[in-house]
Task: structure prediction
Amino acid sequence: MVLQPPVAKTPSPITLVGCHVRLEPLTPAHLPDLYAAGGGDDELWRWMSVPTPHTEEEMGGLLEGLLADCRAGLRVPFAVVQSSTGRTVGWTSYGFFSTRDARLEIGWTWYGRAVWRSAVNTESKLLLLTHAFEELGMGRVSWRTDRMNTRSRQAIRRLGAVREGVFRREMRRPDGSWRDNVYYAMLSDQWPEAKARLTARLAMGPSLLGEVAGCSPPGPGPGPGGTVSAKEK
Result:
């Protein structure tokens, strides 16, 4: 049997730059900001698959788990840095990727409460999706979330992702109860329309945090709306 060559590129640590946020490779140096943004916030962590980190050490343990997955080639985690403050306000990641099948998942995402309902999530997803479809050559990007997490489900739908179904009793929550996961996905042929819609939303006006509006669509090259490799950073 002849093996087919990969049709997409493997994700690797990279910096993705927008107007409102910068996504950069996650490191232990981000820990103090991360704990300040989301440590001890039970509402923020309510639907996550891990308990709320109530100390910086506990947050550091979660961060180290992500970095261990990165070293093993299982996940590429990003620190979400707010451009207006230079502070790290959350993290997100690529995972479950296959170059042969040209697919990946965006997940393990959280943002501090201070940036909820701002431009942070919209632009973070715009940067991640642009890189996945246009630079890595992915044909499918997926998400999964707890069926009880209404806020997350609404945010994923606003991206233009399609609900594909529910995997029942797929994971345990930290309290021991069973979690049903709702799966969503976007395909490469749906991306141009979704990109236009997300770009227009960012250009509509200042965010609740007073961030500058009128961001250009992400494109190749370093600088606002571009990408910088981890080696160039």
Observations:
- The chain has five helices and nine strands.
- Confidence is low (pLDDT under 50) at residues 207-214, 216-225, 228-233.
- The two ends are 42 Å apart (CA to CA).
- The longest helix spans residues 119-135.
